[in-house]
Amino acid sequence: MLIRRASDHLPASEITDERLYLDRRAFLGRAAGIGLAAAAGIGGAGNLLACAVGGDDGRGEDGSAEGRTTIADEPTSYDKITTYNNFYEFGTDKGDPSDPDNTRAFRPRPWSVAVEGLVGKPATYALEDFIKPSKLEERIYRMRCVEGWSMVIPWLGFPLADVIRRAEPLASARYVEFTTLYDPKQMPGQRRNVLDWPYKEGLRLDEAMHPLTILSTGIYGKALLPPNGAPLRLVVPWKYGFKGIKSIVRIRLTDAQPRTAWNDAAPNEYGFYSNVNPNVDHPRWSQAKERRIGEFRKRPTLIFNGYGDQVARLYAGMDLRKNF
Fold this sequence. Notes:
CATH architecture: Alpha-Beta Complex
Structural class: alpha+beta
Oligomer: single chain
CATH class: Alpha Beta
Strand content: 15-25%
Order of helices and strands: HHHHEEHHEEHEEHEEHEEEEHEEH
């Protein structure tokens, strides 16, 4: 398995070139040179290109394999990940969030995150105090967007559960609400009423505490750029991409299901759960297949985006067509 822990400011010599991710032979050769050759003998390249979650052995806190998954898919190129995005705060076209004209006023530092609501220890953290660099891990996740496209992204991040435990949630807490920065001077897309700003998202508490759920600070070992949600965003790999709220400034625990941006805007199209499900079509298109960015062929969409072994139990007994 591959777990990388790194500071927010890695020296260039420590950042793996993205071409090495995409050239598996070169990556394996580099791995052997830095002492990972033994891992290549345990399942080969698939284990080296792994998403290891939980402890260092890739297991959940209870020792089960719930928090572990292996991805042999080749990661999407850094260029594609940073230039093809949905982030309406900077514009509604896929290229708008990477256009310097739309992001030049955005300032990801200094940054603070408030953790509040039904917690024993509410606090507002400076980003530098919020993140323990030694806890950052690299996790390669499939990411599926509701419009029918997908990517494989090497995220740098840490478990959201760490933040929630630090806040000491009260027994009455059932949900977690997230809020994006609202500042039309920095985010010109907020000057248009395409959504009810600020952008909000939410998870059930057990979803938020799941070991696959992370807060990300970077991709490919580099700090997040504005189009990807700088400086801090949510990643929930078994859900459609719009659940991965970006540029987070507030995390609030509640006892009631929070309102969310897209569910408010079009509740018949975007449900609260938004789990990847090939059997539940969007009203305007099928979700049965997806196209990986950088490829021409389509592939079948996987239930829970391929993470069913890890997360299906969260929805035992639920009607996944009704609770879409």
